[in-house]
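Hey Z.,

So I finally got round to the asparagine thing we talked about over coffee. Here's the setup:
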Amino acid sequence: MQSMPHVSVLATGGTIASSENDRGASVASRGAGDLLDGDAVGGASVASRDVMRLGSYLLGHRELRLICEAVAGELADGGVDGVVVTHGTDTMEETAYLLDLIHASSKPVVLTGAQRPADHACPDGPGNLQEAIAAAASPLARGKGTMISFAGNIYAARGTRKAHTVAPSPFQTMGGGPIGQVVDGQARFLSVPIRPKALALPPPAFDTTRVDIITVHPGSDDALARAAVEAGAHGIIIAGSGVGNGNSSILAWTEEAVQAGITVGLSTRVPEGPVVPFYGNGGGADLVRAGALPLGSLPIFQARMLLALLLSQGQTPNPEMLAVYV
Ligand SMILES: NC(=O)C[C@H](N)C(=O)O
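And the result:
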């Protein structure tokens, strides 16, 4: 007889673990044990533990590194078939992508959470968690890296963003759709994400690697970019307008920053579509000529993770190195 798959659930906080405090505000307060009803869910045996208990709007790079280490530890355990991470939705796209970048195992990692808190009259967390466990337990999930399972859909980490603040199904994959669904407790897959070779885990230097984002808008100038450099930024991503455009002030700053050895990435403030270095007069063509690295169609907050990880590992990102990711 085949044994039940074993799924390890790591809890980090988020709305799935939140309830109202004495000031009437929702805060992460429940642990892994409170989220699970028993030690067998669907067709899987489950063991859970708390890694932290925080709203995902409170996570820093150190917390992300600790989550990466916890997940890597579970994946290395021969008795574990898949890992689920419960997590706030606000920054789930960052954690999921960082986990995917370092994911070297064929075992799946599935993030999930909730849009309504645990003490809501109709919470969505319990159902989402059950489905995430089903996805992580599925032999069909093997080789698909890190995913997000939410409201019945399974998304590849890369390219997936929180696209709605309150909708029960808030995630969308830019330039694509879900790679699978969980139906009646069974995960089904439609496609296999393309994933580059895994990078090494974030080192302790990741905690203090600073990558800031500055946004281009009518009237924007270089003041915030200069402040970021002053604050010690190792990398700065320009959230350009349209296909990735700046202006003359941002261009002059980019020339100086690149000369000074700061990594300057070029992304866009538009939710979907690639950066195309096309325009002059401070547009993307000029920025790239000045040394800004075009970040393709990788969502901007995921691009921030990629640059932070590479920089923390002592690498100097260049277009050839980034090509497989963006
Ligand atoms: N739905 C959620 O989980 C949002 C929450 N603010 C968090 O990210 O922790």
